[in-house]
Amino acid sequence: MKLDLANPAWRTTLPQTRSVASDAPVSACAFSRDGATVAFALGDGRVRVLSAEVKDAATPAAEPLHKGAVLSLIADPLGDGFVSGGDDGRVLRIAADGSASEMANQKGKWIDRLAAHRSNGTIAAGAGKMALVIDKAGEAREFGPHQSTVTGIDFSKDGSRIACSHYDGITIWSIGQVILPPRRFGWRGSHVALKWSPDGKFIATATQENGIHAWRIAQASDMRMEGYPAKVKSLSWSADARWLYTSAQPVFTAWPFAGKGPEGRPPLQFGDEGAGLFTVVAAHPTAEYVAGGYDSGELQIGDVKARRSAVLRMSDGSPIGALAWSADGTRLAAGNDNGDMVLIDLRR
Fold this sequence. Notes:
31 strands; four-stranded antiparallel beta sheet; mainly beta; 1% helix; Methylamine Dehydrogenase, Chain H
């Protein structure tokens, strides 16, 4: 997909958008693997599954699937549905028609972190101080305990390991056929989010101290990047692993990870300053674009190569807390604290 953000049309005409209102905040959103549907996780226990076509006005009703809020949502790596986690401790597999089946029940724990590896069909979930891994046959294994609640979880490039963030650092577990002792990478303080780079070379975390931390896995060396005006809560790697995008700035901020990484190099900051600070960022799945949602409700798309940005949705005062791209990168989903479920078609 090619977007010409220098075209005046991006400044005067917003793309095709569909917005569906709900009476509960949106905590997460995801497109199905086939791109036919998009799902939104809501604070009242419902998962709303809608057509991914902007012109489709149908809004199928949905009954609560979780007792309490839905805290996490991802595409199902084995089908064309979704996987959700809730504050009721349950992990559910949700079909495209909205029906659900239980995959795991961790009573008394919140399932607010989910990850999946598309090639091997494995799902990982943070459940209190434990990491729960469910393979494609439905067999579940626990890894831990960690010294505190798991705050982030992600797969290695080949799917044979998972990384978990927690207080004072991260732990990497071997989950493949070869079982190795866990590797611990320490850095004092709270780590609140985690993302493994697509090339497998780096793991980055957001910290409680208004910064980010990164480890070079092969050498077990680390680096920190600071100076943010607020806590960084969202991290997203570019598809080629050259850039790490972060929230908590008024413009797009990308740390360079090509070559030796960002040591001694400032972040690239580009685009027009938005109304507030970014609360969530999401890199395009194939191209050099990134989407970002603000605490004011404004939504922008940025082009890291051209150093430009354009507004997709104007500020409405409700923070955007969820963003997701379709696999082909032609559509973008967003959700805010007011309960608006937004679908944007970027094809012009």
